[in-house]
Design goal:
Helix content: 25-40%
Organism: Nicotiana sylvestris (Wood tobacco)
Catalytic activity: guanosine(46) in tRNA + S-adenosyl-L-methionine = N(7)-methylguanosine(46) in tRNA + S-adenosyl-L-homocysteine
Oligomer: single chain
CATH class of one domain: Alpha Beta
Pfam families: Methyltransf_4
CATH superfamily of one domain: Vaccinia Virus protein VP39
Strand order of the largest sheet: 7-6-5-8-9-11-10
Shape: globular
Protein name: tRNA (guanine(46)-N(7))-methyltransferase
Keywords: Methyltransferase, S-adenosyl-L-methionine, Transferase, tRNA processing
Order of helices and strands: EHEEEHHEHEHEHEHEHEHE
Largest sheet: 7 strands, mixed
Number of helices: 9
Number of strands: 11
Distance between the termini: 63 Å
Radius of gyration: 20 Å
CATH architecture of one domain: 3-Layer(aba) Sandwich
Amino acid sequence: MFRYLHFSPLLSLLTFEHFVAMAYYYLYSTIPKKPLTSFFISSPHIIFKYSLHKFVPSTTPSLFPSRHRSKYCTWVSAVSCSVAETDEQHHIARYWQSSNKAACQPSATCSHEVPNWKEVFRDATLPLMVDIGSGSGRFLMWLAKRNSSSKNFLGLEIRPKLVTRAEYWVNELGLKNVHFISTNAMVSFQRLVSTYPGPLMLVSILCPDPHFKKKHHKRRVVQKPLVESIVNNLAHGGQIFIQSDVLDVAVDMRNYFDDVSNKLVHIDSVDPSLPCDGDGWVLNNPMGIRTEREIHAEFEGCKIYRRVYQKVQH
């Protein structure tokens, strides 16, 4: 019996060979007792169905660290045979535990020099979106491809290896409106963003590390100093998009931004067309592109808790 994989349209950001390798290492590491015999890949451009053993031996996934190849493939969705368990919280904890093990151990105070924005972007006066905790960077790269002449995108990621890989992809794709920096956003956000020549129009914090243990909550990225820095640098009319598949983390972030009610309003008060549930969580992703964690969480049956704020002038 064939087992199939479904890949999201993120496929076009990497070569076909790399995605075949990702499928191979992902499934063989998660379900070793059920070998993958074939795969199905769909994208806006190609649809393939091959026998895996004919292709994988000649494939070298050089972009992925050999010890953790499977950990970078968590957004892949196994369609015909779910590897999901029934306990949602167990899934969430297991995912973040695996992600943390795969990541390098960054310094809590790591910072980055302010780049020359005119060298980083083709037009440094365009409106800027900053994604805090950009991970692999595919989410921003897709947005950059969609808005190649109208917006700039900056990803702040604490794990240097992910940034190195993302910058490699950016160069390969020839994108001139997206850049990634390895830094601790809690330390560097103000210094980096305050020097940008154009307006800061959007900040996103999407599925940040939940740090489940109470004694580690102080490590969560959304803290009062960062919130104040974001709000102060955000242009009038600019927006803040937060989301998490962990309710406790989502509520924690929501409380921090709700406390700045003199400068921020939730999007449903200015744009009623954006539907929310009874608790005020935005039902659909307003960006039109899902992050890898979001894809993985929704496939596992987890709910995504979203909030979108807009800066207003009172």
